[in-house]
Amino acid sequence: FIMISYFNQFTDIADVAKPYFDDISPRNISGVVDEAAILRCRVKNKGNRTVSWMRKRDLHILTTNIYTYTGDQRFSVMHPPNTDDWDLKIDYAQPRDSGIYECQVNTEPKINLAITLEISAARAKILGSTEIHVKKDSTIALACAVNVHASSVLWYHGSSIVDFDSLRGGISLETEKTDTGTTSRLMLTRASLRDSGNYTCVPNAAVPASVRVHVLTGK
Fold this sequence. Notes:
Elements: H1 2-16, E1 20-22, E2 28-32, E3 37-39, E4 42-44, E5 51-55, E6 60-64, E7 67-68, E8 75-78, E9 87-90, E10 99-105, E11 111-120, E12 124-126, E13 131-135, E14 140-146, E15 153-157, E16 160-161, E17 171-177, E18 182-188, E19 197-203, E20 209-216
Parallel strand pairs: 2-11, 13-20
Antiparallel strand pairs: 1-4, 3-9, 5-6, 5-10, 6-7, 8-9, 10-11, 12-14, 14-18, 15-16, 15-19, 17-18, 19-20
Organism: Drosophila busckii (Fruit fly)
Pfam families: ig, V-set
Protein name: Dpr7
């Protein structure tokens, strides 16, 4: 009876000590070209087992614990000392890096956590319609969102850069930085017929986006 009790106690402890994934990250991650992509994996009760990252499309083992097993130096593991984190970092991510990656622990049977990565080009997007109509003497309000932290966003009217110091006056620009990128808002008060035309939002290192403005006379 005593031996059975000890055995049950031992197996209970063994069950508690099994490695498992602490769910801290979404299964689908979006990244932007030339920025770092981080795939998170937190393993509890790792013990003396190994944590590996595998690229699913070619079954290539990229890393094991803190060691990298690929000639592509963009891949590395982020493992701060005394933590359970074994995050895969891909520097200067490219569209070819898109796909499924698995964080694996060599238990018996093996456990794995699959994360899908999608890398897209940095680009601007007009918020709202890409063709708007406003009445003469009203305010033209344009907004452009960029999926990266752009250091600068320029606006063009036709082929000319919008001049905030022009004699026209009434032109203002507001830039907002968020966790996911940059939003630029252009406002032109007292719209005139000369304000009609194509407006283009041009972030640095990103694909631009355009909106067409029609200023209408009459009621």
